[in-house]
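Q: Got a minute? One more chain.
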Amino acid sequence: MTSNLKTVLKALRKHCEKSVKDYAIPRLFKEGRRGMAFVNPWGYFADLIESTIARAPDALAHAPLAPLKGKGEGWARSAVYYSTLVRTSAAWDADASGELEDVNRFGLKETGTCLKMMALLPHLERMGVDALYLLPMFKRSLARKKGELGSPYAVADFFALDETLKDPMTGHDTDIDTEFAALVEAAHLFGIRVVIDIVPRTLGVDNVWLKDHPDWFYWVESSTLDEYRPPMVDTIASKSVATPSHAKRLYASGDVREHLKRFKPDPWKTDAELWRSIQDEDALLDVIDQRFGMTVAPAFSDVVNDDQPPWSDITALRLYLDHPIAAKAHVEQGQPPYVLQDVMKASLNPGDRPNHDLWKRLASIIPHHQKTYGIDGVRIDMGHALPEALLEAMFKAAKAVDAHVALIGEELDPSRGDDALRAGYDIIVGDAFYKIPRVEEGLAYRFFTETRNASCPVFASAETHDTPRIAQRLDQAYARAFTALSYVTPNAAPFINSAQEVYARAPMNHGLDVQNPGGIEKLALFDRVDFDYTHQDAVEIPSMLERLATLRRRYIDAIEEVSKASVIEETPPYVFGFRFETPSHTLVVIANLAKDEACVVETAAYVRDTSASTWTRRLTSRDVDARECTTQIPRALKIEAKEVVFYEVLARPQRLTE
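A: Always. Here it is, folded:
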């Protein structure tokens, strides 16, 4: 059923008679071209929804996509992912005022909404994307907010959506729940699954659980908040993961002992009568500060001597009702609950008393969004810090709703792939974002050629929402080459960060692998930002991926089954590639990642019988025009610097059909 889409369609049709005709839409979304197209927005989105419903009018689009699309188990490993932050990815200057406005001259919102996100679906489909990965969509806490808008990771309520993502085009005839469900339905009709990001280790400092469960959090005196920071421990190596073996040295630190003195019992335990008198107040966090002189403690990294500051807008959830087992011998009697690196890493430092009521609530998050909106998968942010039993309960609950739900881990270390698989994950983030940009060090070569041997599939991601942009840290030719290679990397899923395909240069956040964060005034993760979908080169990567998507679909079984993929070792770490074979076709992929020098590759080593074989299709990352031919295979191929070449081979001449 497509009931939510039809509700949104009905609301839009009510306003189609409005005289607005100069609302701008990026032509990249509308027709895959440069520039802006000018439309009546109500009519444009109504027509888009009508044509979307017409794709499969009787489909169960509100349910997870497995029954609609056919492929169930294992889809997470073969999907092409596109990562988005809706308020930014679907933002554009629709009235050409030069500013991104909350209310423009049409009375409409220029930041992204669930309705406007539908405009990207044809664009994503053309690129072969079949998994839309949405950064957190939940109601946000704005206390201690970062930037103009606050972080999507400062979640105020896991069971409520961000109201700012509702579109004013539909007036009061719909709500945010309907419009998000409609987006999921629309994505499903385009054959695109929807994955959401959840953060079950933390919540925004001002959240809905404070009222009834102050004991689920950690509390400090408000007067000490300005001085609050992760304690440093000079007897432990820098950036060490907190483990029970560190407990004695950790708690012997004078900095840690001073840190523990900041913590207080929760307000309910401090004064139950006063707590009952204020717990129904609005702006509860502020009231607690005024009446109790305390506030929730900011969370911070689970790594000892990390250089990250405290995460001022989020607070840790109290997963255990006692201290970590290994810490108990080192903590004074009566010590209030506290945040420390080992407490944050609850997976390695459990207590004896799980907070069962909280665990049940956390385990119900994914099923709620599966049943309410029909989502297909979830990435678990900081899942590596959660107790194994809690993860197991969360995954079991999700699988009970949809046996094929995708479970994606934030694990960045591919060597821990076996642990991720045992925990129940289908795929992990991995470290491609770190290796791929380091061509000169040989790490890009290692990622593309060694990932096939990893125990757990990873994302083939040259960038993420937390890293520098690949077009900025290298250049556009490398950005094209790496994006192209991601589509054929064995045992890895292509991952496109929002606007990577249009050479976006400004990072969305400074969270990972940032050497020099200066010079960026606004970050999309916290501020009002839009991407330039109209610049002169905006169609290059999308056009290339439209053709690559066809090749990927043809060879997906060989790409997924690493035994069918051969690595081409030409002159590492710059010239290398892959050979994928099917009963009737062979795909040869060769990359030249050198900065300046072209290379010449002999073909005889990679094609069994060049005298009987024929090149039927050539595609390169430098020239986005695919060409078919029936010429004899050349004995030598010239490949320019920063170029990836794709050739299909047949044993006898014939024209391939799409």
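A: The two ends are 30 Å apart (CA to CA).
Q: Perfect, thanks.
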